[in-house]
Amino acid sequence: MRRDEPPAPKARPASAESTADDRPQQRAEPPADPPAPPPAAPAAPRASETPPDSDPEARVIERMRAALESDPEEVLRLDDAASRDFGDSPRAAERGQLRVRALVRLDRIGEARSFAEDLIERYPDDPAAKSAAAYMGIHPRPRGPSR
């Protein structure tokens, strides 16, 4: 063997060679395609994900926010109408929070404080009611038995 020639390939042992019996058998029929998954039903948006243009109460709240700085009287009018239209909806405390702020801007502090107290009484776990109470310096009484 010369140095510039590559070594000859080694022969495989006879036991390593496959025979016709070792090959996998082919099926006469093609495999069936798995069934297609059923089409997914469109998910309904959650209340927090509902775009404002499809939720009339959200549009009112946006208008209330926009009017808070320039026209607090408009906030009160919008809240009065929303209270008639939507009543005690899940967003009532949010509307109430904006009402409290509008009342403060109009220097109707006593009315704002009373309204904030009512909000925290009616919606003790709602973040908007808690915010309105904190804005007015109201500390809600702890619930449960007193000592």
Primary descriptors:
single chain; elongated; 147 residues; mainly alpha; 0% strand; 5 helices
Structure, briefly:
This protein is mainly alpha-helical. The chain has five helices and no strands. Helix 1 runs parallel beside helix 3, helix 3 packs antiparallel against helix 4 and helix 4 packs antiparallel against helix 5.
Unreliable parts:
none
> Counting H and I runs of at least 4 residues, what is the number of helices?
5
What share of the residues does DSSP label as strand, in percent?
under 5%
- Give the CA-based shape: elongated
Radius of gyration: 37 Å
Give the integer mean of the pLDDT values.
Answer: 79
Structural class: mainly alpha
Q: What are the secondary-structure elements, in order, as H or E?
A: HHHHH
Helix content: 40-55%
Count every beta strand, where a strand is a DSSP E run of 2 or more residues.
0
Distance between the termini: 103 Å
Largest sheet properties = none
SSE inventory with pairings:
Blueprint: H1 56-70, H2 72-86, H3 92-105, H4 109-122, H5 127-135
Kindly describe this structure.
- By secondary structure, this protein is mainly alpha-helical.
- 46% of the residues lie in helices and 0% in strands.
- It contains five helices and no strands.
- α2 runs antiparallel to α3.
- The longest helix is centred in the middle third of the chain and has 15 residues, at 56-70.
- The radius of gyration is 37 Å and the shape is elongated.
- The mean pLDDT is 79.
